[in-house]
């Protein structure tokens, strides 16, 4: 059986008290099958962002334990910070990384939400791909009104929580949980300084303009380089491939007599987004991700 | 600091006794910083092949401990098996996987050889990239005469061991240790059934024919597919890239009016061999292997 790996980036509303922060993070260090990649507390935002990766069972267990600490130790009534927030456990996104479909991530997000609602008597909204209504997809929409406004908002029929009671947790507020695909930030450079060309190409290749389904794109000026760039967010690299947007930009650039001169990937991306590119250009047949040595090093015990 | 990872595939001359085999393998389970990927004992060959991966320190420690068990418990005087062999620890190749140069692997192989020779009073030959003379590069050359012939061979001046005494270990014989690059087996299919075309292209692109430095190639018939193939061993993918051989085959195929119709990768390969391909075709600038999520999961604790 192939290992299933997801990433989870829970946000907790505590950015100052190192002891509470360490107690929240502890389950991600302790539980088998998960790996704490990063956690950073921001004093101004008064918020803790944890990046953890692991198999579904390990993530579920560690996350519920961390939520328990946050619900017990954070009092939103005395919480001040610059970042909008509505609960002690503010938001919990699950992101498929390997051998996990978005549907499996949605299922996991619902399992966690159901158990957390019961265990902590916490109202929970499902968001992004887990949303139960279009107006719940966007986190900002859910979070509007913040902790202080939620005692009222939660009583509106259209804002009845997906799990848990229809009133806020007195100290921990409410929580949003959901699944979403990882974003891949991919920029392609053109040998022109004309921003309108980059914008025209961006419009043609992106979903909203009639282009690729899982591609968002805008034109951007690179002042130091005297170039422009088509700057993209690939919102599901498993269905819209990087090479598709790259080749489509080359194709569009031709009509302006412009050339693609390079590209860049910004930040972290799953390996598959790149092996997919290599497999396309080499015309690889029967290639399997398990042939990659590094894939054999992950949770193989 | 970036994690350094190597693979090591030691061969031990015991393929039958499960208890001895488990004792040899135990250090690879126990020592921190190494991961036992596979071990298989072949009764006919009477040989145990271990695949282990890890950082230099962990590999050194676990390997020396495993060698100690093998030297103590295997008596080559009573060893029978179909595979050529010359010692209880027959051969130990070190293979760079990540953030390790071949020179560092050579250095590690010499450290292990020096310590093993001293600790077990064992004669050791350095082979492949670690060889101290051209006739010692090829393992088959060193191994000629096998255990039974080595009492005499080892006294010849040209076969003085690189480390340890100039006589065989009475029960453990002699050992070969060395460093080599991983091989990547890469085949490219052509839409013709004419083997002479595949052979002509293979000859043109391989090192021995004046082509790419780290590329071995032959023509092969694919009977079921009614196609031919240029079958390659890429002997250093960090210096001769997969896309170089692929593009060069396309270029050569053109003169015969033949097309490349696909390719295949056989067996295991390091991720870098593929990210290199993706980076070339997308013209990626400033791409760094650490941007790949999976790279953050390896020995990060």
Describe this structure as you would to a colleague.
2 copies of one chain form a homodimer. Chain A is of the alpha+beta class and 301 residues long. In chain A, 33% of the residues lie in helices and 24% in strands. Chain A is built from 8 helices and 11 strands. Chain A has helices at residues 18-30, 56-73, 102-120, 139-143, 146-153, 195-205, 242-254, 271-282, and strands spanning 5-8, 11-12, 34-42, 47-54, 89-98, 124-128, 175-179, 184-190, 215-222, 227-234, 260-266. In chain A, strands 1, 2, 3, 4, 5, 6 and 7 form a 7-stranded mixed sheet that branches. A 4-stranded antiparallel sheet of chain A has the order 9-10-8-11. Chain A is globular.
Label this structure with key terms.
homodimer; 301 residues; alpha+beta; Formiminotransferase-cyclodeaminase, Chain B, domain 1; Alpha-Beta Plaits; 2 domains; seven-stranded mixed beta sheet; four-stranded antiparallel beta sheet; 11 strands; globular
In the CATH scheme, the class of the largest domain in chain A would be Alpha Beta
Tell me the number of helical segments of chain A per DSSP (H or I, 4 or more residues long): 8
**Fraction of residues in β-strands of chain A:** 15-25%
CATH topology of the largest domain in chain A: Formiminotransferase-cyclodeaminase, Chain B, domain 1
What multimeric state do the chains show?
homodimer
Query: What share of residues of chain A is helical?
Result: 25-40%
What is the architecture of the largest domain in chain A at the second tier of CATH? 2-Layer Sandwich
Low-confidence stretches of chain A: none
Radius of gyration of chain A: 21 Å
> What is the overall pLDDT average of chain A?
93
């Amino acid at each position: 059986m192939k290992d299933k790996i997801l990433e989870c980036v829970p946000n907790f509303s505590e950015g100052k008290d190192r002891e509470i922060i360490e107690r929240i993070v502890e389950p991600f260090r302790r539980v088998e099958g998960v790996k704490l990649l990063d956690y950073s507390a921001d004093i101004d935002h008064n918020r803790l962002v944890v990046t953890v990766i692991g198999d579904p069972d390990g993530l579920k267990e560690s996350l519920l334990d961390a939520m328990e600490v946050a619900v017990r130790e954070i009092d939103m009534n005395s919480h001040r910070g610059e970042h909008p927030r509505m609960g002690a456990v503010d938001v919990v996104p699950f992101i498929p990384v390997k051998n996990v479909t978005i549907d499996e991530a949605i299922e996991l997000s619902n399992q966690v939400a159901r158990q957390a609602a019961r265990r902590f008597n916490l109202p929970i909204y499902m968001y992004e791909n887990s949303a139960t209504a279009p107006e719940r997809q966007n986190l900002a929409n859910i979070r509007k009104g913040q902790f202080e406004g939620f005692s009222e908002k939660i009583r509106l029929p259209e804002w009845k929580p997906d799990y848990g009671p229809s009133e806020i947790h007195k100290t921990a507020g409410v929580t949003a949980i959901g699944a979403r695909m990882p974003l891949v930030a991919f920029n392609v450079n053109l040998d022109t300084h004309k921003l309108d060309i980059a914008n025209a190409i961006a419009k043609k290749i992106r979903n909203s303009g009639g282009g690729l389904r899982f591609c968002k794109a805008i034109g951007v000026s690179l002042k130091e380089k005297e170039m422009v760039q088509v700057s993209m967010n690939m919102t599901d690299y498993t269905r819209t491939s990087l090479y598709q947007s790259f080749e489509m930009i080359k194709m569009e650039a031709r009509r302006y007599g412009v050339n693609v001169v390079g590209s860049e990937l910004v930040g972290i991306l799953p390996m598959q987004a790149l092996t997919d590119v290599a497999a396309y250009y080499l015309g690889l047949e029967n290639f399997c991700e398990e042939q990659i040595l590094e894939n054999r090093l992950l949770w193989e015990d």
